[in-house]
Every structure is written in structure tokens, then in C-alpha cells.
Write a structure and sequence with these properties.
3% strand; 320 residues; globular; 71% helix; mainly alpha
Length: 320
């Protein structure tokens, strides 16, 4: 089978190793940046302001971006495979590497953590846009800690475990298709006036693509919590009780599990583009959130990723 649709467990492990050690080098043309440019161009070209037209045109844009991303990925690896299977494997490995974001997520959270430990809240606010979309100026120290933990939990699914799962299921083509869906969601699947219709198809597509990964991530966080701090039962209880309270059908699962794992409360009021949004509360606040919660969330992210890899690889070995 071509490397485009099937990547060996060894090559997936190497892709993870490249991500953990090198992250996303700026010199490497990242597929997400290319997808983002295509989505921006498509939005400028297709958005009309008419609800019914935007509903159809937004669906067309999302379909084209996903199909084109997957098709170009397949063509690149297939051509390399035909030249030489080793070259095909290297191309597949390089593309698989770009779909994972564990190093980038951990680095962004660590930057906030280090700034708060120094007592440099302005620096922490400057680092927040790499993690969340809410207004940094509206965040006090406590809110920055909670927002960072929320981002680590949610992106443990979107940026790490979901693409890992798609790599096992559909190789680099599957993971890139997921990356395209995720990029569309972050750019046009908003609930404001401009995107209510234009981004609806992309939002539903993202909901469907993340349904399984979000729940797998919650289970991995629970396992990591038990291994790291013996709080697996707390994480499980909060997950079962609070995940469904989140407005997203998926994001509440990793966030609720992380809230239970750390014994803190996530969610609540947040300000986006000057507008205050009330969100469901997840977990229970035992006390004020401490900066150490960010370090613990980063550790749980790493252990949960390892659990996910070993678990999915074991299932593949048993099934294939």
C-alpha cells in the first residue's frame, strides 16, 4: 500500500519524535499556512453577505479545501513512491510531522507559565494569543492560568491526539484532511454575523471529525492523571458530569477531564472581541488557580500523548 494512505507504526513514532524535538521550524513550509492562505482567498472571493448563498458557498469552500489538501498530499507521496519507495517514505514522514503540534503547544504554554512565575503579567498576556482567541487585556493572573490549561486540554485533542489517530487510520492523507478541517474551523466556523451561514458546514464537519478524538483524549487524560497524580477517579467523575455542559459537542470532554485531573475549575466568563461570553463551569475550584497547574497540565499532555500512541498502536497490531 502507498505511504500516502498507510504509515507504519515506526514511521508514526518517528514523526512524533521529530515534532517533540524540532517542533515546527519556520523554514519548513507548513501545510496549515498554505491552507490558511487558500481559505482567506476563498472567503474573500465567495462570501456575499446573503445567508442562503453563503451557506452553499461556505460548504463549497470547505469541501474544496479538504479534498484539495488530501489530493495534493496523495499526489506528492505517490510520485515520490514511484520514484523510489524510500523517497516516498521520507515524504510521508515529513508531511506526517507537520500534522502534529505537541512541541508548539507545550512551548506556548511554557512561555505563559515562565512569565507568570517571574511575575511578568504583561509578558504572559503577550503570549496568550498563541493559545486562545479571547482578549488578553481582559485576563487577570487567575484567568490566564485557567485559559492556558483550557488550551492545553482542548489542543491535546485538536493538535496532537486527533491527528495521531488519523495518521493511524488514513496515513498522511487522513491526517492532512483532518488538519484542513481543523484549520477551516478555526478561521470561518465562528458564530458571529459574518460566519453564521458561511462557516456552518465547516463547523459541522469539525464536530464530526473530532467526535471520537475528543473522547479518546479525555480517556487518555484520565489515564495520565492516574499515572501522574493518582487523580484518575476525580478526572473521570468530572468528565462524566461536566463534559456535556460545554457548548461544543467535543471541547468539553478533554477540558472537563483536565479540570478534574488538576482539581481546578475551567470555563466561566470570557471576553472575545470586546463581547463577554458566559460559558459553563467545568470542575470545582478547590482554591485559587496556581501557576503550577500549567506545569501539571503540560505533564499530563505528554503522558496522555504517550498513552494514546501506545494504545492506538496496540489496537492496530491486534487488528491487522
Amino acid at each position: 500500500m502507498t505511504h500516502a494512505l498507510h504509515l507504519s507504526t515506526t514511521l508514526i513514532a518517528l514523526a512524533m519524535l521529530l515534532d517533540v524535538t524540532l517542533g515546527d521550524p519556520r523554514w519548513l513550509p507548513h501545510p496549515a499556512r498554505i491552507m490558511g492562505a487558500a481559505i482567506s482567498w476563498g472567503e474573500d472571493t465567495l462570501h456575499t453577505g446573503d445567508g442562503q448563498q453563503d451557506l452553499r458557498r461556505g460548504a463549497v469552500l470547505a469541501t474544496v479545501v479538504v479534498v484539495l489538501s488530501a489530493g495534493v498530499t496523495w499526489a506528492i507521496i505517490e510520485i515520490c513512491d514511484r520514484v523510489d519507495p524510500t523517497l516516498g517514505a521520507l515524504a510521508a514522514l515529513a508531511i506526517a510531522w507537520t500534522t502534529l503540534a505537541a512541541r508548539g503547544l507545550d512551548s506556548a504554554a511554557r512561555e505563559v507559565q515562565d512569565a507568570l512565575l517571574r511575575g511578568d503579567e504583561p509578558a504572559a498576556r503577550r503570549a496568550m494569543p498563541a493559545l486562545v482567541g479571547r482578549d488578553p487585556g481582559s485576563l487577570d493572573r487567575d484567568a490566564m492560568i485557567r485559559a492556558t490549561v483550557e488550551s492545553v486540554a482542548e489542543n491535546a485533542s485538536d493538535g496532537v491526539i486527533a491527528p495521531l489517530l488519523f495518521l493511524f487510520l488514513g496515513g498522511p492523507v487522513g491526517a492532512i484532511a483532518y488538519k484542513a478541517i481543523n484549520t477551516l474551523d478555526s478561521m470561518i466556523a465562528h458564530r458571529d454575523e459574518r460566519y453564521t451561514y458561511f462557516g456552518r458546514f465547516a463547523a459541522r464537519l469539525d464536530d464530526a471529525a473530532n467526535w471520537v478524538p475528543a473522547r479518546v483524549t479525555a480517556l487518555c487524560i484520565i489515564g495520565a492523571s492516574e499515572a501522574w497524580s493518582r487523580r484518575g477517579s476525580d478526572a473521570y467523575s468530572v468528565w462524566r458530569r461536566d463534559a456535556g455542559k460545554h457548548e461544543s459537542p467535543n471541547a468539553g470532554h478533554p477540558e472537563a477531564a483536565m479540570a478534574g485531573a488538576l482539581g481546578i475549575q475551567l470555563g466561566g466568563a470570557a471576553v472575545y472581541e470586546g463581547k463577554k461570553i458566559e460559558r459553563a463551569l467545568l470542575g470545582e475550584a478547590v482554591g485559587p488557580a496556581k501557576v503550577e497547574a500549567i506545569a501539571s497540565a503540560r505533564t499530563i499532555l505528554k503522558v496522555a500523548t504517550l498513552i494514546a500512541f501506545v494504545g492506538i498502536a496496540t489496537i492496530r497490531a491486534a487488528v491487522v
